[in-house]
Amino acid sequence: MKVVRTAKYQIKERYMKTEIYWMTLTVLATALFWLPYIIDRILEHDLLPALRNPERDTRPESKWANRMMYAH
Questions:
Q1: At what angle do helices 63-71 and 35-45 cross, to 10 degrees?
Q2: I need a surface site. Which of 1, 9, 17, 32 has the fewest CB within 10 A?
Q3: Comparing C-alpha atoms, which of 16, 50, 55 is closest to residue 36?
Q4: CB atoms within 10 A of CB 65
């Protein structure tokens, strides 16, 4: 099998590299958004209670974390 590389194929290949780059950055940024909330939970409740599923009545003590919870 012979692979023919035309100008059209090379343009598409560059486009996909750019698309994958930005998709990777978006996934990493989204993965990092939850870290401040988890760090706040660890500082408020220690490590093990923060890792458990919180009760319904458990609300963050920090105002910014409480706003963040209601925003999402």
A1: 130
A2: 1
A3: 50
A4: 18
Give the pLDDT score at 10.
55
pTM: 0.54
Distances (CA, A) of 72 to 14, 19, 31, 60, 69: 36, 27, 15, 14, 6
Tell me if 44 sits within 8 A of 61, measured CB to CB: yes
Read off the pLDDT of residues 12-55 as tens digits, 9 standing for 90 and up.
556 668 888 999 999 999 989 888 888 888 888 888 887 787 77
From the CA atom positions of the chain, what is the Rg in Å?
A: 22
**Calpha distance 66→41 (Å, rounded):** 11
